[in-house]
Amino acid sequence: MISFLSVFPPYRGGIATFSDSLYRELSLLTKVRPFGFKKLYPSLLFPGTSQKLEKSNNTYALEVFHPYQPFNWRQVAEQIMEENPDYLLYSYWHPFFAPGFRKVLQHSKKINPVLKTVGIAHNIMPHEYFPLKKYLTERLLDKTDLTVLLSEQTESDFKELHTESQYMKLFHPIYELERPEADVDQLRTKYGFHKDDQIVLFLGLVRDYKGVDILIEALNEILPKRERIKPLIVGEFYTDKSKLLDQIDGQVKDRYTIRDEFVSDKTMAELLTLSDLLVLPYKEASQSGVLANAIYFNLPALITDHPGLSEHLTHRHNGMICRPNDAQDLRYNIEAYFDEQLKEKLSRNLEPLKEELSWEKFASRLVERMQSL
């Protein structure tokens, strides 16, 4: 029996979505008890509008964990161990949560010394500065029997740590979102685009490390000479929005569609259906749930050459890959993609990845490895 401590819906975001999908897939293989969060981030660390989904009744996890209330951590361990699990599985993505997770693992093992602990590491090191990040992560992983890594980048980061934890490398599975009922032309009309527009999409939280400034720099050269290209930037801004908008060439500002908002699954499915190219110009990356979604919708992506992004894509076969922090190379690849009409070829070649990166394969390999501990 697996106890799974993570953030689940109705909390929103990539980790909650991942945990929800993994819980459902694991439940087909074995008994799983989900334990969720009472609180997630303090307002100081969360600049967004809301941490929970609106109009969501999807609350199946027992909400027990408070990451910044130390008096709560021992109680959480005791609640989890009442179920007498064989494994304690948890999701890790930021050192802010490391002290609480460590205490839960430590006390759980005191209650049952043969308990096996398994951490799914979405990140090993955060993309932004955080004090003592390496120290906090190492102390947590020292209480973790098996660390599950989702990309080459997290594997590389893990190997730089001093920890006794075993590890296995898996992958970020592909989500199967519900496809829109409307067709491409109807969706383009809904979002204010024309049938012949060439829509370049950036999708997801807008943070400094995600390179939207590099994309704008490239588009400032592309747009004056290519009237059909229309940039579409959708996601909550966690950086200086006015600074980014001021970077856009005034002569082409009216060609942009910018939506500063949380993206629901329904909206994401519509955007990935109506667009011609997803651009992820990340300056650094562990992996990307947005890219996984794009693969499901057969939408080709232009990504920067980071191990966490590019390990499943081959340049000009099932994706486009450019150098990080290089607006000229990004510009060249956007133009080449449309000039050479690569969408149909790349889209077709994404199809085999759907089976290769399935939730079924992820869950079965995870359970098999856990049982060998």
TrEMBL record:
InterPro entries: Glyco_trans_1. GO terms for biological process: lipopolysaccharide biosynthetic process. It comes from the Bacteria. GO terms for molecular function: glycosyltransferase activity. Residues 185-346 form the Glycosyl transferase family domain. Keywords: Transferase. This is Glycosyltransferase. The lineage of its organism: Bacteria, Pseudomonadati, Balneolota, Balneolia, Balneolales.
